Amino acid sequence: MAISQLHPLEIDERTGEPFLRLPPPHNNIIITPPRLTDAPELTNILSEPAIYTWLSSAPRPCTQEHAEARLLRLKGRLEELMKEIKELEEAFPDGPLQWVSGCPVNALREVKEDGTQVYIGDIGMRRDRFMHAGEGEFGEGDEQRRLEAENAALPNGDENILWSMGDFLSTPYHGRGIISAAIATLFREWYIPRMNVHHVRVEAFAGNGASVRVFQKNGFVVDPEVRKVDHVNAAGIRHTGMHVMIWDRK
User: Fold this and answer.
1) 3-class SS at 167?
2) Does the pTM exceed 0.70?
3) How far apart, in whole angstroms, are the C-alpha atoms of residue 95 and residue 107?
4) Residue 26, exposed/middle/buried by CB under 10 A (0-12, 13-18, 19+)?
5) How would you classify residue 57: left for phi > 0, otherwise alpha for psi between -120 and 50, otherwise beta?
6) Residue 103 contacts residue 190 (beta carbons within 8 Å)
7) Is the peptide bond prior to 25 cis by the omega test (within 30 degrees of 0)?
8) R_g of the chain computed on alpha carbons
9) Among the four residues 33, 37, 92, 246, which has the most C-beta atoms within 10 Å?
């Protein structure tokens, strides 16, 4: 029996998109590819103080043009990934499942009772860029570029790849355990079985205790020493410390 290289993703009959559904009590939340029509909702979310304060690259004010540019970048990456998966399906029409370079779903959506899907946030993983190894507290440098290139050159499925994660969720949905459930679902359903993820490094600006707790719930170990950082993010907010969280597969 043929097995799709998109397994275990489901396919939405109405949109034709792959998706993952969170388990109860969050089974009204799905994770899908981004859509350009998400721009108005994304603009609103990135304009929430509880969001842009803790993100490095969210501008203030955030315009719809900013949101559209972000969505275009995400769609471009995921289109390349879907091309990769299609090529794997052609090469291995009867399986087995092959390691892939990323996850084709990252947009969090609430499914209403009438079937309407509302964009509420974003969660994703990519190969780490080793910005923490750059010159100064933030930025590139010879060592950073060397480490990033070595990490990028490792083949899909290599257990030595260092990954990084990021997420945000619209503030009305905070405190419900949605991000924690999404992280657990992605690790269980895709990151481990389809990408062979073994090592993940996550950073959160000092003071963002909610993000730290979410990752701790999912097995991340927090470095007790806050890394010194003096960084002004894209919203013009100065941060002077960084929490570092590490997940290593046992």
Assistant:
1) strand
2) yes
3) 27
4) middle
5) alpha
6) yes
7) yes
8) 18
9) 33
